[in-house]
Amino acid sequence: MKKLFSLLLAAALVLSLCGSLTALADEPITLRVYDWSDSTLVYRQKFHEEFMANNPDIKIEYTQLTIDQFNSTVVGAIQNGEGPDLFPVPTTLNLSTAVAENWFLPLEDYLPQEFLDTFLDGTLSEGVQRKNGVLYTLPESGSLSNSMFFYNKDILAECGLEVPKTFEDFRAACKTITEKGAGRYWGLIEGGNQANRCDILFRALVQSAGGKISINNRALTVNGRVPYDTEEVRKAVELLQGIVEDGSLYPDTASISAPEARELFAQGKAAFLCQGLWCIGTWANDHPELNYGVMVPPKGADNGYVANVESIPWMGIYSKTKYPEAAARYLKALYDTETYHYQADVVKSGSYVSVIKGVNEANMVDPVMKEYYEAASQCIDIPIATSRNVKFYDFYSTVVGTTPSLASIAQGILSQAIDEPMDYLAALSDAETNAWKTACEAVGIDFSELEFSNWVAGQPYTAADYAALQ
Amino acid sequence: MSQKAIKVKQNPIQRKNRIKLNLWCWAFVSLTLIFYLLFQGYPILCSIYYSLFNWSGMTSNMTYVGLENYQNLLKDNVFWGAFRNSFRYMIMVVPLEVTISLFFAYLLNDEKLRARTAYRVSLFVPVVVTASIVGIVMIFIWSSNGIINYVLKSLRLIDKNINWLGNAKYAMRTVVIVSVWKDMGTYMIYWLAALQGVPADVIEAASVDGATRGKTFFKVVVPMIAPTAGIILILCTINSLKAFDLIQTLTGGGPFFATDVIATFVYRTAFTSDMGLPRFGYASAAATMFGIVVIIIGAVLNALKGKLQKLQ
Q1: Which residue of chain A comes nearest to B251, CA vs CA?
Q2: Residues contacting A202, CB < 8 A, separation 6+
């Protein structure tokens, strides 16, 4: 009897073990995806539902953080082999460094060529998504300037104003709007507690004044010096100071973030806002009644221009993931236009432009998005140090930034915290020139390679110009 | 009489008991000690170690630079600005926090006061609310369209709305006010504990002798709660020098470094950068340097407290 009982017990144990193993085998794998793409959250969640329905063996665990949170909480985990299965290259890092740290798997081992052929030409470029010819990341969206100006058509009409085209007109328009608004609305609003937004606004104004200045976080010299105290910079400073002195800047600008500024603009608290394409999708969802348009930044000189932004690396597969095939399946689906609608959704909503062939043409239905696209298409390519010499990616990993930075000084102007910004800018130019020289020496590049003597401000810089410098 | 300890020979049972007692003591302390070593001691040692390297915290590329980070800190105006701000903040916060919390504690220690528990709870509530939530709410309250401006304008104390947190002139003072409001409850509890230790008959005797409430407080109560006051002062000073979460949420150290204290400097340097990589090693050096300053201040205050107690 005892033997029979023992046998039954053993059989039950074996059966339950088998059952558990079968259950484990049936259990979907969890794919952890981290990023900071807040403007596409709604479409991303919809995509994840579609993806999980089509791939019952995969469960998506999607976490959205801010870039600061990512840097302070996820990077350590990546270094310790505990990173998420899919994550983007942090904005403080470039692909070269991430690859040197062995963070990502070569994508071509998992993604077929016919899938990669669906990307627009030039989007999977060397230095940005590829290192030594090997593809490690995919881009999130097409590169489009994020320094266009949105304007509220109703406010401009109420004040009897046309869209301002010059610095003088812009300042005067902001003043008129603020006076007529009498506390209901102001001229300009900006996410002033975000240094990066202040930096983008400031650089856009310097470029509009015809100044030779790089896009943010990038290096470029003029006459052997970092050009942060030029005459064109002074013009941009004077415009911002003038707007602040006139009281035309939304009063809380210094203490609000970019999403808060975006929301307040949509509530009709200001007539102008300098931000990117992502606003359009958010406003379409939250404020469909908002009557607004898009314009290029006002010009401060005849040779004023706005620069195109550089492409940046985005999502890659973690080198230590247990599920590289599942992660590759996720990436394929994210860009797939036959079974999934994510690419079409983000373009239709105006969140951003797609990098997949044919998607923009078929889905760009929002008139404001078309307007943005047209305005941004007036942007020009300016010289890029990494296009001249890929070793500049190492320079960006080596250079030590100066504080207060250009972004901090721009914040200081908006918050009226500094009286003589040009003094700070001159000191910054000196300090940055020295820091850039030191970094060039450290990585073995000639500092003079940051100088593009054959570039004329306001004129696009072409491949032929790069070739002429060789 | 000789102060030398007299060595008493213990018998084996006494020795065994003493060892047993010691073992029990260590057993009780060990858990705290392990947690301290893991979550305080080890990170402090790591921070000191990292401060000797040029390291971004994001890559495995660490270059030993010895004391170079410390030398650079000595020349860094932004660091010294944050250093000054930390002390400005402390000088404003400590007297306000200590006196206001004592005032409320004394008021709410009165047994005759009705609903005093409710008052105590209401003053303690901000302490249990997360600093970041307080920060977010306060941004609205102190904004140019917030309730503070509305009230001040209604009372005709200001004629134009002020962006209290976005204006460099007012930002630090605003942060101090919010901080005092938030943390005052903690110190009130300490004061209440001290006040409850003052015998009621002593107060009654003073009252019978004709002392006013003020005189009783300054001549009878204050000397009796002075030892606790020393501890409160040390805690409040150290906590104010370590302030981070509230300032980070309210202003992030801005506008243009007007509220930048060492903790916000360290956070920004360690995890963000406008150009190039973040500077984790440099931030560690700043944290170590300031940590040493805080330890010295704590030790000096402790020594002062000891001397004052002896004088009493």
Answers
A1: A255
A2: A236, A240, A406, A407, A410, A413
Checking ipTM against 0.95, whether it exceeds it is: no
Q: Cα separations (Å) of A199 from A145, A214, A215, A240, B273?
A: 14, 11, 9, 12, 13
Q: Is the Cβ–Cβ distance between A450 and A433 less than 8 Å?
A: no
- What is the sign of the dihedral through the CA atoms of B236, B238, B241 and B247? negative
Q: A240-255: buried (b, 16+ CB within 10 Å) or exposed (e) per residue?
A: bbbbbebebbbbbbbb
Locate B36 and state its tokens: 């301290």
Domains detected in chain A? 28-138+312-340 (3.40.190.10), 142-308+387-470 (3.40.190.10)
- A164: its two tokens: 């301002």
CB atoms within 10 A of CB A119: 17
Q: Nearest-CA residue of chain B relative to A89?
A: B58
**Cα A420 versus chain centre, distance:** 31
Of residues B177 and B204, more confidence is placed in: B177
Cα of B236 vs its chain's centroid, Å: 4
Please confirm whether the linkage preceding A404 is cis (ω < 30° from 0). Answer: yes
State the pLDDT confidence band at A16, using cuts at 50, 70 and 90: low
pLDDT score, position A11: 60
DSSP string, A171-197: HHHHHHHHHHHTTS-EEEE--TT-HHH
Nearest-5° Cα angle at A256, A255 to A257? 130
Amino acid A165: pLDDT:
95
> What is the gyration radius of the CA atoms in chain A, in angstroms?
26
State the smallest CA–CA distance between residue A198 and chain B in angstroms: 12
Computed from CA positions of residues B177, B179, B185, B188, in that sequence, does the dihedral angle turn out positive or negative? negative
Separation of alpha carbons B187 and B193, rounded Å: 10
* Nearest-angstrom CA–CA distance, A152 and A162: 11
Tell the burial category of B124 from Cβ atoms under 10 Å away from its Cβ (0-12, 13-18, 19+). Answer: middle
Q: Give the DSSP H/E element, type plus range, for residue A426.
A: helix A421-443
Q: Give bridge partners of residue A86 from the DSSP assignment.
A: A33, A317
Contacts 24+ apart (CB under 8 A), A323-327: A323/A29, A323/A31, A323/A58, A323/A85, A324/A105, A324/A109, A324/A110, A325/A110, A326/A29, A326/A31, A326/A55, A326/A57, A326/A58, A326/A85, A327/A31, A327/A85, A327/A86, A327/A110
Query: pLDDT digit string (tens) for B95-115?
Result: 999 999 999 999 998 888 888
> What is the per-residue pLDDT across A256-300, written as a single tens digit (0 to 9) for each?
989 899 999 999 999 999 998 889 888 988 999 999 999 999 999
Of the partner residues A68, A401, A412, the one whose CB lies closest to the CB of residue B275: A401
Instruction: Give the residue from chain A lying closest to B77, CA to CA.
Output: A403
Cβ-based neighbours of A243, under 8 Å, separated by 6 or more: A171, A174, A187, A188, A249
| H/E segment holding residue B289 | helix B280-311
Chain centre to alpha carbon of residue B298: 11
The answer to whether A38 and A259 have CB atoms below 8 angstroms apart is yes
CB contact under 8 A, B163 and A399: no
Alpha-carbon distance A103 to A83, whole Å? 9
Chain B contacts of A196, Cβ < 8 Å?
A: 274
Chain A with chain B: Cβ pairs closer than 8 A: 117
User: What six digits make up the tokens of A29?
Assistant: 């794998």
Q: Closest-CA residue in chain A for B79?
A: A403
Nearest neighbour of A255 by CB, restricted to B139, B271, B277: B139
Chain B positions contacting chain A at CB under 8 Å are 57-61, 76, 78, 139, 143-145, 161, 163, 165-168, 251-252, 254-258, 270-279
Q: Does B58 sit within 8 Å of A90, measured CB to CB?
A: yes
Q: Is the peptide bond before B255 cis (omega within 30 degrees of 0)?
A: yes
Is the CB of B166 less than 8 angstroms away from the CB of A401?
no
